[in-house]
Amino acid sequence: MKIRADIAELLRAGHPESHIASELRVSPKTVRAARRALGMPDPPRGKPASTLEEAFRAHTEEIGDGHVRWTGYVDAASGTPVLSCHGRRLAAPKAAFLLHHEREPVGKPAPTCGMTDCIAGAHLADRPMREALRRTEVARLLRAGQLSQAEIARQAGVCQLTVQHTREALGLPAPKRGRHLPKYPTLESAFAACTQPVDGGHLQWTGRVDGNAPVLRYGGTEESVYRIAFREHTGREPEGRVRSECEVPRCVAGPCLTDRVIRASHQRADAAFEAIFGDPT
């Protein structure tokens, strides 16, 4: 029997057969036959979870830095993690929020940690919490004095009127006409002024963004922050496009960045590994 690689991968990862069948849109019999062809034992049949917390913890795993990953059923149509308890279907992020904050969320809970699929209750915020976080971020950027009101509005995801009202509430002076960004003695100090450390060794850019690309203007020229950080970390000029390979938005930590040379090296290493040990799937 030829076994589909995606079915084998999910079986080895411990996903329930029903979830695999739903996720990959195949028959449960196909999944069960693949399990037997792989020589894997039948899954244990445990008793149903008696509480929402038990049902939630049965399908999650902690992955470090306080993050939690969902390992259970995911609705194929919406991509939403879903759990069942006492005949009730509930979105897993909503369940995580409810368990941690002990209240129903207002609007859809979303992670604020930078990991898009994290469902740790402490990392989730509903609509009022996100609005408060945005106001806090606006206040922080206003006090830093590094960005114009328009740039703060764009970066924090609010309107310029919100920025203006926040500035007035803080008692900060009105910005001068035109761009008056602070002067820094070195490129390194300008870079450091617009970054903040994030858990896990990451470094998040808090300065100007052109589209989705972090940029830094220094000495009359504007350059990609990814290229600056790469050059500082490796001691050489990057070749081709520099990308951040981690899941933290706008991470500019040197170890998280790759250029064409590094990516090609990774591909050769993966090919060599596969040649020696075979396809891991």
Explain the overall architecture.
With 281 residues, this protein is of the alpha+beta class. The protein folds into 4 domains: 5-37; 52-125, no CATH class; 128-170; 187-262, no CATH class. The chain contains 11 helices and 13 strands. The strands form 6 sheets. The chain has a 3-stranded antiparallel β-sheet with strand order 9-10-11. α2 (17-24) packs across α3. The chain is flat. The two termini are 15 Å apart.
Strand order of the largest sheet: 9-10-11
Number of strands: 13
Strand percent estimate: 5-15%
Sequence of secondary-structure elements: HHHHEEEEHEEHHHHEEEEEHEEH
Number of domains: 4
Mean pLDDT: 84
Rg on CA atoms, Å: 24 Å
Return residue spans where pLDDT drops below 50 for at least 5 consecutive residues.
none
Shape category: flat
Distance between the termini: 15 Å
- Count every helix, treating DSSP H or I runs of 4 or more residues as helices: 11
